[in-house]
Each structure stands twice: as structure tokens, then as C-alpha cells.
Design a protein that fits this description.
Blueprint (H helix, E strand, L loop, with lengths): L2 H30 L1
Keywords: Membrane, Transmembrane, Transmembrane helix
Amino acid sequence: MPHHCIYLIILLLYGSAYQALLFYNHDLFDILY
């Protein structure tokens, strides 16, 4: 299996996790402030 496919999947996973973290932090800031 080509390595670039694995890197692409990892990149997509990190991207979605980062967006979820941003949304979660935004909700948290709305509650705190």
C-alpha cells in the first residue's frame, strides 16, 4: 500500500479532529464568557 494514501488519511483525520476541537472550544468559550 502506498504511503501517500496513509498520510492522506491521517491528514484528513487530523483535520476533522482539529475542526471538532475548534467547535468544542468555541462552545466552551461561549459558556465561560
